[in-house]
Amino acid sequence: LLLLCGGGVAAVTWLLTSGGVDTVGKVAFDRPLKIPPLAESTVDADGTRVFDLTAGPGDSDLGHGASTRTWGYNGAYLGPTLRAQKSQKVKVNVHNRLNEPTTVHWHGMHLPAKVDGGPHHPIPVGGDYQAAWTVDQPAATLWYHPHPSDLTERQVYRGLAGMFLIDENEENEEDLPHEYGVDDIPVIVQDKNFDGGQLSMSDRFLSDVGILGDEILVNGTPGPFLDVRTSLVRLRLLNASTARVYDFTMSDGRPMQLVGTDGGLLEAPYATSSVRLSVGERAEVVVALRPGERVELRTAPTGLGRFQGGRDAFDVLQLRAGGQITQKTLPPTLTSIEKLDPSQAAQRRTFTFQGREINDDRMDMDRVDAVVVKDTVEVWSVANGHGTPHSFHIHDVQFQVLSVDGRKPEFRSWKDTLFLEPRKRYEIIARFADYADPTTAYMFHCHVLRHEDEGMMGQFVVVEKAGDKPNIRHG
Ligand code: C2O
Ligand code: CU
What we know:
Blueprint: H1 8-18, E1 31-32, E2 42-43, E3 49-60, E4 68-73, E5 82-85, E6 89-96, E7 105-107, E8 128-134, E9 140-145, H2 152-158, E10 162-167, H3 171-175, E11 184-195, E12 198-200, E13 215-218, E14 221-222, E15 224-230, E16 232-239, E17 246-250, E18 256-261, E19 264-272, E20 275-277, E21 282-288, E22 294-300, E23 315-326, E24 347-354, E25 357-358, E26 370-373, E27 376-384, E28 390-394, E29 399-404, E30 417-420, E31 425-432, E32 442-446, H4 449-453, E33 457-463
Parallel strand pairs: 1-15, 3-6, 5-10, 11-16, 15-23, 24-27, 26-33
Antiparallel strand pairs: 2-3, 3-4, 6-8, 7-9, 9-10, 11-12, 11-13, 13-14, 16-21, 17-20, 17-22, 18-19, 18-21, 22-23, 24-25, 27-31, 28-30, 28-32, 29-31, 32-33
CU-O-CU linkage (C2O) binds near residues 107, 280, 393, 445 and 447.
């Protein structure tokens, strides 16, 4: 969820002057930001766009001199950006060239459970897998990452992740900065540890949330800068860390125009000086620049203390505007968002996240935690019952937040992942449209990847009509 806060800059200044543990001001910004390449694709006779992804090891320079062993898709670290149009058929051929099983999950995508890439469908070492579906949702910044049983944290940490952009080509979307890598920039933010120059998986902060790093990579680039040639630049922020929460701000406190959340554009730009993203969440922001200036994207203290390893404030990305920049303006409206109505809810459910359990249960591949009837709307009340931060992610659907501790959010937006602050309760609403399959479960879980691996996950099955029974099968 987005924390709306004008005090971010003051807090950063306080940390700098009080000797708090942070890295702001220490990064050199001397490397050009890497832009993940757009994935190559072919188009089948029936119009299906076909992609190939090979997960495998490689060697990367992550800023510590010698190269270090990493994992990536079609390369040494991260993966290419997949891009498809709304209503387009897509097919992805996935090859596992790792030394352990993996899956690829299409985070935020509305699609049949069979091709969702969850833990029921592992791709064995050396194996291949094919996922095909029709894109049927608004323009959005989605992503893909592994989702095997027990191994997700380490696989994502080593570098397996990438973006999946959906385009709709509506007029207002065209009015936003939309030239990939030029004024429309993927910003994949991750924290890492290094030991003797090598990427380290040590859990040295004992934070209860798994691995936390003290260095930031953006698209795999340490200390990155970006040359900008337009007065507006769109940053597609993705928190692809394993545990860390970021409060993104600009170094001089200037407002960012929030234009999109996980599942698509907002109805209108929303000016804010701070955007909070927990693991798996995305935000699209547009930043305005004057000719010749430099300004940094940073993170400000979250107040989450030891759950962030005591390190909160990081330099992220320096924007360098050219002397001559093309003037652009932001459209006043972006899209319209259907208002889901809680009085239409066919079912209400309550889920409490506590320890590593959801409603006192850990993941069981044979237990179905919720049976949902296709094309119905449900209201879920999701609470964090204790002091450790968690996050709530649900597969297949995009939801709207109805309330946070009883208070309504300031604007409507599509979300698939929600930060669960300690001891807060959230009400969300979603429509489970289109795909019923009694034999295959979708997941909902904590997106802190250590927690997910330790079983903080449940399963739901969508059935055709009320009374139908699920009958899930593996493989
Ligand atoms: Cu981003 Cu179930 O995952
Ligand atoms: Cu958790």
